[in-house]
Amino acid sequence: MTEATKPPLDILLCAPRGFCAGVDRAIQIVELALKKFGAPVYVRHEIVHNRYVVDGLRDKGAVFVEELTEIPDDGQPVVFSAHGVPKSVPENARSRQMFFLDATCPLVSKVHKEAQIHFKREREIVLIGHAGHPEVIGTMGQLPEGSVTLLETVEDALAFTPKDPERLAFITQTTLSIDDTAAIVRVLTERFPSITAPHKEDICYATTNRQEAVKRIAGQVDAMIVVGAPNSSNSQRLREVAEREGCPVSILIQRASDIDWSRLDGIRSVGVTAGASAPEILVEEVIDAFAARYAVKVELVQNAEETIAFNLPRELRLSAAE
Ligand code: 10G
Ligand code: SF4
């Protein structure tokens, strides 16, 4: 196809998109640990839910495991993923005298602390989140088994019976759908008016900004492409948001080679965004793939500015400065 024969296509590029401050910090922790301590650096669970990131770190000497039992006693560091871990994980690491670096996002740790405070104040805790997700496993694992009840849906909130509605609190996963969570919270506050809510939303700034950016353009485009992994909760939510806003085609892809072009037949405009764990290079790859087939005009739609950055663990601050 020559430039002159390519059909026109408007690309609306969402901003903010891609890496959040917690992901950026977590990846830096693995990279700096490799630099300071050499390979192997063990990482418990995918540091963030992105194959490109994981493969890149593996090439540099990171070894990914699901459990500490898979790690030999060789004195090399182990990094806990950004999603957070149950309390038993650092406890086990300490008992084996392992050297660990915790890449849990500070905004996830904040939710862990809220849970602990509620528990201390003898409140019954409900966690709004998705069963089986590592963040949910990590948050529930901050407290003794049975202290936290997981609610996934409005139906769960309607069916829930607390021990004492006067001593109840809720917390949430950080990457949920803003709208679904609001609906669940509405049911809980209607049924249990004394329920204690987080001081400041548990759904984080990055999740909120990325969903709002998608909402802003989803009604204006013929299709939405979300770059992100199928096991990435926040990326899945972005795809859903576009679909619910009425975007005719909303697709989650890991990278450009996943695009099913037959689903994009006849489109004249497309929105592009990326989940919090998807690197910008994969977004560029997607734009290049469109540019190979269409005469593209790219417009940036900036919905919020993000300036937040988190401190690195003490052990790595010096290496970062070098
Ligand atoms: O969206 P989830 O939680 O599945 O994780 P991710 O690795 O795709 O993105 C970064 C978000 C976290 C580390 C969870 S707070
Ligand atoms: Fe932290 Fe939010 Fe990023 Fe999760 S999505 S790592 S909570 S900033």
TrEMBL record:
Query: What does this protein need as cofactor?
Result: [4Fe-4S] cluster
Q: Which GO terms describe its molecular function?
A: 4-hydroxy-3-methylbut-2-enyl diphosphate reductase activity
Question: Which residues lie in coiled coils?
Answer: none
Residues binding dimethylallyl diphosphate:
H49, H83, H133, S232, S233, N234, S277
Write out the residues that bind (2E)-4-hydroxy-3-methylbut-2-enyl diphosphate.
Answer: H49, H83, H133, T174, S232, S233, N234, S277
Q: What are the binding positions for [4Fe-4S] cluster in this chain?
A: C20, C105, C204
**TM segments?**
none
Q: Which keywords does this chain's UniProt record carry?
A: 4Fe-4S, Iron, Iron-sulfur, Isoprene biosynthesis, Metal-binding, Oxidoreductase
**What EC number(s) does the entry state?**
1.17.7.4
Which residues are named in the active-site annotation? E135 (proton donor)
Q: How is the cofactor bound?
A: Binds 1 [4Fe-4S] cluster per subunit.
Which Pfam family is an annotated match for this chain, by its short name? LYTB
State the reactions this protein catalyses: dimethylallyl diphosphate + 2 oxidized [2Fe-2S]-[ferredoxin] + H2O = (2E)-4-hydroxy-3-methylbut-2-enyl diphosphate + 2 reduced [2Fe-2S]-[ferredoxin] + 2 H(+); isopentenyl diphosphate + 2 oxidized [2Fe-2S]-[ferredoxin] + H2O = (2E)-4-hydroxy-3-methylbut-2-enyl diphosphate + 2 reduced [2Fe-2S]-[ferredoxin] + 2 H(+)
Q: What pathway or pathways are given for this protein in its record?
A: Isoprenoid biosynthesis; isopentenyl diphosphate biosynthesis via DXP pathway; isopentenyl diphosphate from 1-deoxy-D-xylulose 5-phosphate: step 6/6; Isoprenoid biosynthesis; dimethylallyl diphosphate biosynthesis; dimethylallyl diphosphate from (2E)-4-hydroxy-3-methylbutenyl diphosphate: step 1/1
- Signal peptide interval: none
Could you say which residues bind isopentenyl diphosphate here?
A: H49, H83, H133, S232, S233, N234, S277
Family assignment? Belongs to the IspH family.
Q: State the PANTHER family in the record.
A: 4-HYDROXY-3-METHYLBUT-2-ENYL DIPHOSPHATE REDUCTASE
Function of the protein: Catalyzes the conversion of 1-hydroxy-2-methyl-2-(E)-butenyl 4-diphosphate (HMBPP) into a mixture of isopentenyl diphosphate (IPP) and dimethylallyl diphosphate (DMAPP). Acts in the terminal step of the DOXP/MEP pathway for isoprenoid precursor biosynthesis.
Q: What is this protein called?
A: 4-hydroxy-3-methylbut-2-enyl diphosphate reductase
